[in-house]
Amino acid sequence: MTGPVNLRREIHRNPERSGCETGTAQRLLRFFEPLRPDQVIEGLGGAGIAFVFSGKEAGPTILLRSELDALPIHEVNEFEHRSLHDGTAHKCGHDGHMAILAAVGEKLSIKRPACGRVVLLYQPAEETGQGAAAVIADEKFARIKPDYCFALHNLPGFPVGEIVVRNGTFACASRGMAIRLTGKTAHAAQPETGVSPAKAMCVLIAELSELPSAMDFGSELAFATVVGSRLGDQAFGTAPGEAEIWVTLRSETDETMARIVSHAEKRTRQLAADHGLEFEITYQDIFAATINSDRAVDVIRRATGDGPLSVAEQPFRWSEDFGCFASVARCAMFGLGAGKASAELHNPDYDFPDELISLGADIFLGILEQAGETQRP
């Protein structure tokens, strides 16, 4: 396992943000070259790359997916493999996920699948929610046509190596909503001669913060988080004419997300009209809910065997663009415990535990065997 561990640390030292992962892709190409995959597809949805290992007999195509991108976070760790780029670091464990697939590739280079094909997909731009959709929309993706797609995510706070599964929603849908309210500036001594967005902004912040609880979602997980706002500028002689509000919406299902969005847009429209304001709403970082297929989860359960396994009672609140692959195949994401004492994801002192590389690879290899048996004629 020395090779994948060294690969992870090299990638960790050289992180690249979403949409800029070309150097990471080149490192993976160099690692896989001596493994002699049967097919290499480059430039998938950007810097994405797929390594295909084929069996001698016909059978299913099983895709295992990892992410390429790092985060705009400054690393505070001082170990030898710390990030060489201030302000950019692998604080979600994508470097470890990549190393796990590299370890699977080493095994497949020695022993090809009995039937069908295994696709090891390294996907760009997961953190922005754009990468999976771009890969699927790429005409080169048609060469893959998976029957099953699987992915894992390391989970700090869970025992090392514990498998965490869930039928249905595994990770929430989310999106960033930006609202701009535009009125008219005025002299601070004569604010009545302008149109201030201040009152409408305050009402919106309060309503958006309470929006999910004001709607009837039953026991479904749904909430909104106001992450920032701006009203005018620090100019004491001028009453403000512009305001902005930034809020993250989260829900257990895409249907509930549509309801939240519709309600938020309606209230923005009403308040803007009531206060004589123009408004603009834009969205970014849009993630569909990650919905696990029952059959794919059953494959994971059988692959785990007698290993430690737990069932998540609720979906994870964070989001993952892996959910896009459900439009083309049976899919499931599972969690892999990273240790109860581990720093949390996106913390500046987080680092992926190297011991998970072999554990994750073994689980994926078990999944490949079980999924192949499930689809065997």
CATH class of the largest domain: Alpha Beta
Give the SSE string.
HHEEEHEHEEEEEHEEEHEEHEEH
The oligomeric status of these chains comes to single chain
In one word, what is the shape? elongated
Largest sheet, in brief, is: 8 strands, mixed
Low-pLDDT residue spans: none
Strand order of the largest sheet: 1-2-4-3-5-16-6-15
Distance between the termini: 34 Å
**Beta-strand residue fraction:** 25-35%
Helix content: 25-40%
Radius of gyration: 23 Å
Computed structural class: alpha/beta
Task: Kindly identify the CATH topology of the largest domain.
Answer: Aminopeptidase
**Count, helices:** 8
CATH superfamily of the largest domain: Zn peptidases
Strands, count: 16
How many domains make up the coordinates?
Answer: 2
The chain-level mean pLDDT equals 95
**What is the annotated CATH architecture of the largest domain?**
3-Layer(aba) Sandwich
List keywords for this structure.
377 residues, alpha/beta, Aminopeptidase, Alpha-Beta Plaits, 2 domains, eight-stranded mixed beta sheet, four-stranded antiparallel beta sheet, 16 strands
